[in-house]
């Protein structure tokens, strides 16, 4: 099976996390188009644009968020 080297795990995490987040957010934002029967086209379009915008944000912000989360939590 094809695998990406561990040194790029930060980017893989960012791609997956932003993809899931954008899929859910764009689906919620597109719910108004279910009645018109155009949900799928609106959802796919908004998903694509939001994912392209969010991927760089997540990749840049994730290390800071991870650092902050580690600073404000402790081992039990």
UniProtKB/TrEMBL annotation:
<keyword id="KW-1133">Transmembrane helix</keyword>
<feature type="transmembrane region" description="Helical">
    <location>
        <begin position="12"/>
        <end position="35"/>
    </location>
</feature>
<protein>
    <recommendedName>
        <fullName>GNAT family acetyltransferase</fullName>
    </recommendedName>
</protein>
<feature type="transmembrane region" description="Helical">
    <location>
        <begin position="47"/>
        <end position="69"/>
    </location>
</feature>
<dbReference type="Pfam" id="PF11391">
    <property type="entry name" value="DUF2798"/>
</dbReference>
<keyword id="KW-0472">Membrane</keyword>
<dbReference type="InterPro" id="IPR021529">
    <property type="entry name" value="DUF2798"/>
</dbReference>
<keyword id="KW-0812">Transmembrane</keyword>
């Amino acid at each position: 099976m094809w695998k990406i080297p561990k040194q790029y795990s930060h980017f893989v995490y960012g791609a997956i996390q932003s993809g899931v987040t954008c899929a859910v957010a764009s689906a919620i934002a597109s719910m108004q188009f279910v009645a018109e029967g155009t949900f799928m086209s609106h959802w796919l379009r908004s998903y694509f644009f939001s994912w392209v915008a969010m991927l760089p944000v997540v990749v840049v912000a994730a290390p800071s968020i991870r650092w902050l989360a580690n600073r404000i939590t402790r081992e039990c």
